[in-house]
Design a protein that fits this description.
This protein is an alpha+beta fold and 387 residues long. Helices cover 67% and strands 10% of the residues. The radius of gyration is 32 Å and the shape is elongated.
Length: 387
């Protein structure tokens, strides 16, 4: 009986919040009518985006309430109301989420007020009937659980009405792809500029110096063979340094070790050369010679994330060890890098997290950074792929 009372009390609180929200919606309908009238006369069109934003907040509060009751989060799918006034009005009118919220608002005027009313007679009836039924006859309650059924109906109807339509989800998805495409282009341009800078400042300068040394050696060969030989030795040193610079550039584009040893072997080599004591754990992954491998772009992104994370940890965290976890999951590849440093990682601080996010977003992946002050810092990456 006690558990039944607790559940009925919880459902009652849910329905009380429902009727309070319904009462607020009845007040809000006045604002909605004023906005509709002014928008029709074009004079108050500027109120439309703000009214739509207010409807979104009310619908968002109902999503949270229904999700808290059912334990299943109701997703949102809205187009951002940005730009000029004309663009905001156009977006507010054309956004499929606006129609979804308005449809829910109209239906909520009905069931949001009826369900709490139906609850009122159940409490006194339930206390009498279930008190005898459960207290004396030791049977399961039959009346008070109906209050939970009413809360279930409110949550189920709200979930069905507030769930984004396929068109709304498609619009949000297109917007996400536009943003990730822009980020991928920006990351690609930054990478090209870095390669150009490395070639210009390093390899090209050494090759120019090499050409000059060879030319001077040719001129001095007949008059001073010893000086020419020394110049040729210097030219050979410059050629070797230029080759080293070129290898660094090539490794930054796509590390050859990924092709030779696979992601697992490359990460183990990266851990061995790190300034930290790095522990690498692998779950359902092989070195690539006796099992399936992720696509090359996915392996390169994962390698970049791990390399950047370990570099940041060595430079800024103050930690002396880190853990790297690689796992093959049903939807793709999961990477987690953890260090026990001081934490407080900030994307705006130039720590490379923004470039990491852009590279992962270009592959439709996600990055989660948890770095409270005092540590630890945990970077988790999900890279979708087909095995």
């Amino acid at each position: 009986m006690r558990s039944t009372l607790r559940q009925a009390a919880r459902a009652t609180l849910h329905l009380v919040l429902t009727v309070a929200m319904t009462f607020g919606c009845f007040i809000f309908v006045t604002v909605l009518l004023i906005t509709a009238i002014l928008t029709a006369t074009v004079v108050g069109a500027f109120m439309l985006p703000e009214t739509v934003l207010l409807i979104r907040r009310i619908a968002g509060a109902k999503r949270q309430q229904a999700g808290a009751w059912t334990g299943v989060k109701i997703p949102e799918a809205y187009q951002p109301l940005t730009g000029t006034m004309r663009e905001r009005v156009r977006t507010a009118v054309r956004d499929p989420g606006t129609l979804t919220d308005f449809r829910w608002l109209v239906a909520y005027y009905a069931y949001g007020a009826v369900l709490p009313v139906l609850m009122l007679p159940l409490w006194p009836l339930g206390l009498v009937v279930d008190g005898v039924w459960c207290g004396l006859l030791r049977r399961e309650a039959v009346v008070l659980p109906l209050i939970s059924r009413l809360a279930d109906l409110d949550a189920d109807w709200s979930t069905a009405l507030l769930k984004p339509s396929p068109k709304a989800r498609l619009a949000v998805r297109v917007e996400e792809l536009v943003q990730t495409r822009a980020g991928a282009i920006a990351a690609h341009e930054a990478e090209l500029r870095r390669i150009e800078r490395d070639l210009h400042d390093g390899t090209q300068a050494r090759l120019v110096s090499l050409s000059m040394r060879v030319g001077l050696a040719k001129r001095a060969y007949d008059q001073d063979p010893e000086a020419a030989r020394k110049m040729l030795d210097d030219a050979q040193t410059l050629a070797e340094e230029a080759l080293t610079d070129l290898r660094h550039v090539v490794r930054a584009i796509h590390p050859p070790i990924l092709t030779d040893r696979g992601l697992v072997g490359a990460v183990r080599a990266l851990a061995a050369s790190s300034a930290l004591s790095v522990t690498v754990t692998v779950d359902r992954l092989t070195d690539g010679h006796d099992g399936p491998r992720a696509p090359a772009a996915v392996e390169a992104a994962a390698y970049f994330v791990i390399a950047e994370s370990l570099t940041n940890a060595a430079k800024y965290s103050g930690a002396d060890r880190a853990d790297v976890h690689l796992a093959r999951v049903r939807t793709g590849l999961r990477v987690r890098v953890r260090d026990e440093g001081r934490g407080g990682a900030d994307e705006a601080g130039g720590s490379g997290l923004l470039g990491m996010r852009r590279r992962v977003a270009a592959l439709d992946g996600g990055v989660t950074v948890t770095s409270p002050v005092g540590g630890p810092t945990v970077i988790e990456v999900e890279l979708p792929c087909v095995w």
